[in-house]
């Protein structure tokens, strides 16, 4: 089944992700789309764009635990409930002269909105906000194409 790989300047359909990945150092990551009891979605503001919390999987760490850990670390939430897996995405970038293919496992989480939000400043996150469905298009104007697809898949 073809997958979309997002690059720094475009996206492309790839029929064989394993063959495509041979040209890259593969980094596994996990993250989450978090919704609250008011059907809002949680977004973070990092590096000048609205994004979703995510991060690299640690050695021997299950991806769903990584997703939970990263959401907690990046947003300040401390009580999350895993609802279900959502998607696996791929994007490429360069870092220190290496070509990287990041494979990110995404999960849907529920959280209560009465929890204290705390952006993880040391990771370049400056804002964490609950966003209502009718305002999400404004935020999508300043995010990555991949985030559009994930929010669409989650019903936002």
Q: What is shown here, in short?
A:
The protein is α+β, with helices and mostly antiparallel strands. It has a single domain, classed as Nucleoside Triphosphate Pyrophosphohydrolase, CATH 3.90.79.10. It has 4 helices and 9 strands; from the N terminus they run E-E-H-E-E-E-E-H-E-E-E-H-H.
Description:
With 156 residues, this protein is α+β, with helices and mostly antiparallel strands. It is globular, with a radius of gyration of 15 Å. The protein has one domain: Nucleoside Triphosphate Pyrophosphohydrolase (Alpha-Beta Complex), CATH 3.90.79.10. It contains four helices and nine strands. The two termini are 25 Å apart. It has a six-stranded mixed β-sheet with strand order 2-1-7-8-3-6. A three-stranded antiparallel β-sheet has the order 5-4-9.
**H/E element order:** EEHEEEEHEEEHH
Helix percent reads: 10-25%
Radius of gyration: 15 Å
In percent terms, what proportion of residues is strand?
35-45%
Low-pLDDT stretches are none
Please, what is the average pLDDT?
94
Biggest sheet record: 6 strands, mixed
Predict the CATH topology: Nucleoside Triphosphate Pyrophosphohydrolase
CATH top level is Alpha Beta
Under the CATH scheme, the architecture is Alpha-Beta Complex
The gross shape turns out to be globular
What's the helix count? 4
Biggest sheet, strands in spatial order? 2-1-7-8-3-6
Number of domains: 1
């Amino acid at each position: 089944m073809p997958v979309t790989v997002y690059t720094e300047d475009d996206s492309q359909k790839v029929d064989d992700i394993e063959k495509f990945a041979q040209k890259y150092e593969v980094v596994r990551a996990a993250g989450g789309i978090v919704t609250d009891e008011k059907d809002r979605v949680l977004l973070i503001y990092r590096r000048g764009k609205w994004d979703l919390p995510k991060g690299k999987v640690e050695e021997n760490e299950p991806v769903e635990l990584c997703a939970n850990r990263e959401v907690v670390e990046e947003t300040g939430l401390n009580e999350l409930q895993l609802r279900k897996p959502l998607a696996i995405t791929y994007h490429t970038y360069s870092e220190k002269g290496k070509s990287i293919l990041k494979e990110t496992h995404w999960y849907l989480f529920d959280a209560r909105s009465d929890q204290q939000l705390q952006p993880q400043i040391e990771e370049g996150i400056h804002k964490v906000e609950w966003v209502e469905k009718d305002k999400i298009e404004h935020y999508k104007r300043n995010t990555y194409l991949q985030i559009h697809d994930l929010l669409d898949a989650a019903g936002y």
